[in-house]
Amino acid sequence: MRLRLKRIGIAIIAIFVAIQLVPVDTHNPAVNPARAIYATMPVPSNVRSVFDGSCRDCHSNETRWPWYAHVAPVSWIVAQDVHEGRREMNFPNGVRTRRRNAKTNWKKFASNW
Q1: Of 109, 98, 111, 106, residue with least CA distance to 41
Q2: Could you read off the pLDDT tens digit of each residue along the chain, which spans 113 residues?
Q3: How far, in Å, are 66, 75, 113 from residue 42 at the CA level?
Q4: How far is Cα of residue 29 from the mean position of the Cα atoms in its chain?
Q5: CB atoms closer than 10 angstroms to residue 36
Q6: What is the pTM assigned to this prediction?
């Protein structure tokens, strides 16, 4: 029984180590400061502070990847969420969204704060 548990434990550790070898895209694309949201639209300071603290990591190309974003399998989930957030709305590349009227989206966002 102990030998079996030991083998199972070793197998779990081996799998955990092996999945660390699966690459995850955690690079941040280049940001053009001239197209940044702060350069193209007036942003109230309270909205900017909320954005910097809560939204920037998933909705910008300036993601600060936490340590656990480099440990699988959590890294897979974090990277997927960040890439999806960038696709939905990416602030530093201007307010680029899937929807047609990005300025209206930004104004709706800003008016909630």
Answers
A1: 106
A2: 899 999 999 999 999 999 999 999 998 988 887 777 777 778 788 888 888 888 888 888 889 999 999 999 999 999 999 999 888 888 766 555 555 555 565 566 666 55
A3: 30, 35, 14
A4: 12
A5: 18
A6: 0.71
